[in-house]
Amino acid sequence: MNLRNPSAVYELHQRYIEAGSDAILTNTFSANPLNISNKLLKKVLQAGADLAVRAAKARVIVLGDVGPIGELIKPYGEVDFEDVLKTFKKIFYILHLSGIKRFMIETFTSIIEAKAAFLAAKNFTDDIFVSLSLQDNGRTVFGEPPESIAITFSALGARAVGINCTTPETAIEAIERMSKVTRLPLLIKPNAGKVKIDKNRIYHTYSDIQMARFFKKFVRAGANIIGGCCGTGSEYIRRIARHRVQPGPRKYQDRFYLASPHQILGVKNEDVIIVGERLNPSGRKKVKEQLLNDNYSIFGEEARLQEKAGAHCLDVNAFVIEKDELTTMKKAVFEVIKHTHLPLFIDTQNFDVAEKILSFYPGVGVYNSIPARRKELLRWLPLVKKYGFKAVISLIGKRIPRTCEERIANLKLALGVARELNFPAQDLIFDPLVFSSATEPSQVLYTLQAVEKINQLGLKTILGISNVSFGLPGRSLLNAQLVGAAIRSGTTFLILNPLSEPVMNAVASARALFRAKTSDWISQFSSRSAPSVRVESKTPVPLDLVSAIVRGNKKSGVEQAKNLLNSGIKPQQLIDDYIARALKTVGDYYETGRYFIPDLLRSASVAKAILQILKKYLPKKQKKGRIVLATVKGDIHDIGKNIAGMIFESAGYYVIDLGKDVPAEKIIRAVKKYQPDVVGLSALLTTTMPEMENVIKRLREHKLNVKVIIGGPNVSSAYAHKIGAYAAVRNVLDGLKLLKEK
């Protein structure tokens, strides 16, 4: 449109400006190298920028609009974060050269891709507005809650953060939740309700007039920036632009916030936060052996065990001298992200490794750790701040401190450097150092004295509990004693083994006695005959095959499948009785909101690995069926279709994926060539849904009576009937059920 019909784009900009807009967006939302050839991309972006700037005439703000490229990034897919970062950097570079000084990053469905776009934009401006899209359940398709989104992009330095391309009701609730965890201006840009389809037309629930009636609710929720997304028009803007009001006071809760892709952790100084220590090869022989054998599943297994045992965060270290640390650390962190909901402490002393991990981590974690020396602080703190992380400051100076006073002197030096760099003191955690009682018996008291003094300053502390017992017998008992003393002294974070029963009992006891958590103690132990914390065994209990698939444990799943084959179970029976049953459970979890896209992908990867083993036992004709998948012409949103392909393959179907923006002619050729049982067509946009009807019409013209299933968030059975499709499905699990019934 920017090149073929620029006057239409220009006139649309003018219509919104005349309606009272304070800002307009360039017509560049889906302009990226995956959708537009390199030959045309620069021209499209430049034209989009020029049209908006000319229409604005300096009367309104122009925001360069950039949407997702739709790739599944590691650890969820196979695309590298760095490659996506480069793609976005190219887009922002062209827009910047075209005179655009502010950017709007919108309609993203995962924090990790939005972070790649944000970091790319940061090369050209600090004026970056970030907006993600939520499902009706109030989370992204990757299961990310609005609080994680708000905390992550607040820490990164966004100008505003918010929600778009979501129903008004869901967006209002999300903004209310965001307002409690960030001081940033909040942006709300909802759709005009849901898409409705009847025999004659496709439309949205609300008209512009009805949408404008949500204005007061948007303001009460805490929104500072208000606009409209799919289904809204200039009349909506005209009606809300009449009002100029200030949002009401927020219920902001001032905390030290950490965020994983799935949950947040708000920390007050008086809290006791357990950081699981078991993901570290230097302290655990088993972890080191697995790393040397390139087996990273132990990181996922141990992460799950520690989370279940009561850890609030996990420390991840993957350094072994024999291996490249960047490779080991990336793979270790990928496994942990896939298998736990907890925020992470990234434990490495390699600057390049730290930068790579901190750059892609989809949340706010802690870098562990920086020594309290000026040179190191000046180097490391800007890196930590750039990627929105917190930092542990180890109170080791030019020499190892021997007294409490030396530790406090090192702390003051660190605070001074942090002030110079404008790094908030409240984002620092101080480690007064725990030494082994075997070699430094007097140091424990100095460490605890330092904790008390730091606590009095209103700052946070952390102690590596297990260091105290290094080289001694009865380690868990000594560790438990230090836990009690540390909590009494005011320590905020404890790095320890959450699978140790004596240690976890000590945590519960000390919290009850010294942190006024008696009610927690009562609820924990009132129903038990003896006061002992139940901790899962250090050795994971073997999973049956169904459980292994449901939990996404590839190592256990493959082993169980081999055992079943060796015991005489037929391959087809294994597929029908185990894989199918597991995927049904996964589907049920997904429908009830217990599982999200990452969980589906994890389970699918296990099923796929098992099917690879079964391939040699199954004749080709025993494949469940052939499916041709395509996102129709004009639509470039294919994450849902890609996930569907993975799930269908993991369930035993042969999938031919034609990609996105696929013309009808290509689909017809594929049907003739592969003779599939089903054609699956996807479309996210209401504007591209009519192309589904065109494809079906063309298939029938070529006498191809294959069953066509349509998919996407806006399709319905009524629309499927109208265009001659076999059925409509809203998500991949519905599609899988339909295939089994077919």
What does this structure look like?
By secondary structure, the protein is of the alpha/beta class. Among the domains are: 1-125, Homocysteine-binding-like domain (TIM Barrel), CATH 3.20.20.330; 160-250, no CATH class; 435-526, no CATH class; 541-611, Methionine synthase domain (Methyltransferase, Methionine Synthase (B12-binding Domains), Chain A, domain 1, Orthogonal Bundle), CATH 1.10.1240; 623-742, 3-Layer(aba) Sandwich (Rossmann fold), CATH 3.40.50.280. The chain has 28 helices and 24 strands. It has an 8-stranded parallel barrel, surrounded by 6 helices. Strands 1-2-3-4-5-6-9 form a 7-stranded parallel sheet. A 5-stranded parallel sheet has the order 21-20-22-23-24, with helices on both faces. α6 links the parallel β5 (160-164) and β6 (186-189). α18 crosses α19 (518-525). It is globular, with a radius of gyration of 28 Å. The chain starts with 5 loop residues before the first helix and ends with a helix. The model is unreliable at 529-541 (pLDDT under 50).
